[in-house]
């Protein structure tokens, strides 16, 4: 039986970039962050990435079975290397996300992981939210609220995650709890790194545009950018969320451009989607704290900073770890689920009522929390 109060939780995230598994320890009671612990990263090999990619959007099916095996094995390897964890938060790998269609689908079996690790595992974080009419994403915002408190923020600010997809969390740290009215507004901004990575792989056999080197040499095609901005997603009132390839049609508009111009244009699309998203914030955030791999792309960061009159900084500027924030988020959320605290609310996913969602699997037994 787990003790009440603060515990060391281990979180794991396999993101939409399909680059690998992040895992990190957090000491938390689900409300306050008391400390950050060890973390690690396990990359997917190119072969594993191909299997995962082939399974995107396809379930049920043989492709999904093969992808699930990879996700399960990678997590078992990574998570068994930690010591001192009392609880695991296991997100799994999203293969499809259609909140207004077939639902959300993360692969990975938390019950099997609990047996393998001999630890309680919280998983299937998104289903309960969707059952109550929510988007099922993003879920990191309740952790971003705790981070805003941890850094001592006194005025509204925003966290921006630039992963495969981008997501923005506007936080008012003056509110008592993350589920309070007006404490959080969150949503996916648009594509971030996924289209850049896909184009780099298709044209150059490289996984991503390292340090924005190719984008830096290119010229943004204004026509393609304008057509992108006409997408109806940008006028939808948040909360709202996206699948990895929701914008595939739009990003195909760069197919006739030469490599550098195409990557520069996709990078500008990612930045401009964020700028559009910021227009939805209740009041302008005092600063933009950027997490996720896109913060390593100086061209993307410069595009944001040039357009904004507030500081745009990687989260390292306030002592957080931008490579691990999502893994830490699922550690924190697991503790919230264990304590019956909400993990989403109307401001983050549009859910009808604040909900604590997830399955808790104990080694030897599995119970549904919400
Ligand atoms: N030095 C760099 N230069 C440019 N881009 C980079 C660099 N380092 C990482 N990236 C980009 O960041 C991506 C990984 O980001 P991240 O790990 O945040 O994604 P994720 O967790 O899979 O995504 P999501 O948040 O959508 O689940 C890489 O695939 C690459 O596109
Ligand atoms: C369905 C799904 O897996 N969505 C991811 C994805 O990657 C970024 C963005 O789209 C965000 O909505 C979410 O991940 C983070 C961890 C979240 O739920 O907050």
Automatic annotation (TrEMBL):
It comes from Roseovarius aestuarii. This is Anhydro-N-acetylmuramic acid kinase. The gene is anmK. It holds the Pfam family AnmK. Its EC number is 2.7.1.170. The keyword Transferase applies. The lineage of its organism: Bacteria, Pseudomonadati, Pseudomonadota, Alphaproteobacteria, Rhodobacterales. It comes from the Bacteria. One of its GO terms (molecular function) is phosphotransferase activity, alcohol group as acceptor. Gene3D superfamilies: 3.30.420.40. ATP binds at residues 15-22.
């Amino acid at each position: 039986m787990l003790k009440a109060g603060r515990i060391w939780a281990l979180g794991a995230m396999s993101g939409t970039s399909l680059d690998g598994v992040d895992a990190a320890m957090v000491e938390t009671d689900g409300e306050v962050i008391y400390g950050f612990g060890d973390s690690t990263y396990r990359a997917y090999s190119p072969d594993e990435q191909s299997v995962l990619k082939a399974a995107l959007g396809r379930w049920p099916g043989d492709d999904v079975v093969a992808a699930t095996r990879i996700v399960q094995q990678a997590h078992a390897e990574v998570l068994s290397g930690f010591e001192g964890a009392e609880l695991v938060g296991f997100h799994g790998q999203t293969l499809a996300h259609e909140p207004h269609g077939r639902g959300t689908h993360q692969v990975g079996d938390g019950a099997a992981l609990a047996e393998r690790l001999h630890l309680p595992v919280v998983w299937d974080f998104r289903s309960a939210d969707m059952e109550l009419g929510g988007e099922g994403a993003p879920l990191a915002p309740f952790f971003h609220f705790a981070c805003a408190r941890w850094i001592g923020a006194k005025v509204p600010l925003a966290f921006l995650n630039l992963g495969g997809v981008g997501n923005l969390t506007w936080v008012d740290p003056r509110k008592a709890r993350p589920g309070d009215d007006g404490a959080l507004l969150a949503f996916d901004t648009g594509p971030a790194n996924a289209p850049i990575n896909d184009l780099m792989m298709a044209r150059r056999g490289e996984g991503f545009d390292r340090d924005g080197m190719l984008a830096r040499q290119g010229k943004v095609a204004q026509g393609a950018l304008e057509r992108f901005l006409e997408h109806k997603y940008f006028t939808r009132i948040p909360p709202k969320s996206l699948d990895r390839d929701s914008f595939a049609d739009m990003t195909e508009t760069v197919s006739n451009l030469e490599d550098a111009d195409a990557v520069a244009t996709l990078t500008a699309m990612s930045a401009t989607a964020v700028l559009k998203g910021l227009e939805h914030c209740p009041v302008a955030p005092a600063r933009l704290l950027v997490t996720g791999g896109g913060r390593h792309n100086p061209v993307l960061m410069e595009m944001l900073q040039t357009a904004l009159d507030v500081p745009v900084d990687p989260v390292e500027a306030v002592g957080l770890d931008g490579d691990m924030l999502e893994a830490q988020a699922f550690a924190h959320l697991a503790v919230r689920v264990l304590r019956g605290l909400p993990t989403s609310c109307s401001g983050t996913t549009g859910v009808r009522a604040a909900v604590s969602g997830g399955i808790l699997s104990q080694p030897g037994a599995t119970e549904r929390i919400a």
